[in-house]
Design brief:
This protein is an alpha+beta fold and 253 residues long. Helices cover 25% and strands 27% of the residues. It has two domains: 4-45; 55-252, no CATH class. It has four helices and 14 strands. The strands form five sheets. It has a six-stranded antiparallel sheet with strand order 5-4-3-10-11-14, covered by helices on one side. Strands 1-2 form a two-stranded antiparallel ribbon.
Length: 253
């Protein structure tokens, strides 16, 4: 006769080796999932930031219109001889160019001019990413003799660099704390010849006869982040570690 109790006992439960192997496999699976968790959270956060950046187009346009054509034109200067009636404007070579730096908190609800920067451009055309660096410029003299203020005008702040506390309390709706300046919006004019040997010239380069000013806009993030170890409670992230999107924009006279 077949011993039924023997077969029942033999197939009842798991052996110690089987349990150990199962726990090992389970641990490997759980460990792999946890290792992917920071990557997944980072990807999700970056996607949210990218969507926010893409939704900032209108806010950027409003801030540029608030600044006015003259401030934007001279704050993004990239050509020489713009108002020389005897010659066509030409790309600046071995000279200074300007770029507007706008900024916004992480929610993208407000955009304010932070500063205008001044850079030296050699024969090589600087890209928008390279334009993220530079020295702040408070004002400039135009080719026709006037002066454009980028920081303060008639004792009123134009940029965030021009704010003074508590004198400017009525302008606080435009103020953004330095550690909250998560997005940087770099605005610059198009080069006439984007590449040294390019031909024909860019159809977007600025000419005074145009009724509009075309700009190349690049939004970068994170721009500045809270860091209590710094004396100012924030640090600026190196441009090579920022995410970026770019698009063209124009303002009218």
């Amino acid at each position: 006769m077949i011993n039924r109790s023997y077969h029942a006992n033999k197939n009842d439960g798991f052996t110690l080796i089987e349990v150990i192997i199962s726990l090992g496999v389970f641990g490997l699976v759980i460990g792999s999932l946890f290792s992917l968790l920071p990557w997944g959270v980072g990807k999700a956060n970056n996607l949210v930031d990218r969507n926010t950046a893409m939704g900032m187009v209108d806010a950027v346009q409003i801030e540029l219109e608030r600044l006015g054509f003259s401030v934007v034109e001279h704050g993004t200067k990239r050509l020489d001889g713009l108002y020389d009636g005897t010659n066509e404007p030409s790309d600046t070579s071995n000279g200074e160019i300007h770029a507007l730096i706008l900024t916004s908190p992480r929610d993208g609800q407000r955009v304010s001019l932070e500063t205008v920067i001044n850079l030296y451009q050699g024969s090589k055309r600087l890209s928008n990413t390279e334009l993220a660096g530079g020295e702040p410029l408070t004002d400039t003299v135009t080719e026709y003799g006037g002066r454009i203020e980028f920081s303060r005008y008639e004792d009123k702040p134009v940029s965030l660099d021009g704010f003074e506390f508590p004198a400017d309390s009525k302008f606080l709706s435009r103020w953004i704390e330095p550690e909250d300046r998560y997005f940087a919006v770099i605005c610059s004019q198009f080069a006439k010849f984007p590449n040294e040997n390019s031909d024909p010239p860019s159809r977007h380069f600025h000419h005074p006869s145009n009724g509009f000013l075309a700009l190349q806009v690049e939004i970068q993030w994170p721009y500045k982040i809270f860091d209590p170890s710094e004396s100012e409670n924030f640090r600026t992230v190196d441009p090579k570690y920022r995410s970026k999107i770019s698009f063209p924009m124009a303002i009218s006279r």
